[in-house]
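W.,

You were right to be curious about this one. When I first looked at the sequence I had no strong expectations either way, so I just let the prediction run and decided to look at it fresh. Below is the sequence, 208 residues in total, followed by the output.
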Amino acid sequence: MNLTIIPVGTLGTNCHLIISEKGAAALIDPGAGGEKIANILEEKGCTLKCILLTHGHWDHNGGVRYLLEKYPETELCIGRGDKEMVTDEERFSGQLRGLNWEDHYLPEARELADGDKIELDEITLTVMETPGHSPGSICFVCGDMIFSGDTVFLENVGRCDLWGGDFDTMKATLAKLTALPGDYTMYPGHGPHTTLQHEREKNPYFPR
């Protein structure tokens, strides 16, 4: 598996590009820079099969419309609890930053639930529901890697004061992550990667 991290947007969202041995590609959280991402796809000669959103906030989906228009056969997926965040303008906060709702409206997304699997040739990504930052936040578990979106950052967690966020729910999610056997490399939606064991030991929000 080939993994490329593409920083995009004003908040430095980590867009993760995963490419199988046969050249099939998945994008996790193309938050902006659709044209930039498309250029990288072309340079790598891969075929975009799916776009996977860890949650519905504007800084994680701003590049989706461009990419779906350029690659219309691509499947878009989002956690079932966040579907209304990309279909209901009242849940959109990007207008506070001068963004247009029309660029973030994504009515055709497939809703994912805990345990669902995304198959990409030899690669399998398993959905883990991790609400707290938003009602439908999810992580994608792939081998010994976790793509954690805004659930877990290096020694921090996602804010819970936006619409649908809940800190008690976040604490239950962190307990769920802590209970996973073994260790994982964690790739968050912002900032550097970390490991689950490091977060167990150093993250002040993780249960002890």
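Here's what jumped out at me. The chain has four helices and 14 strands. And, maybe more interesting for your project: The mean pLDDT is 97.

Coffee later to discuss?

I.
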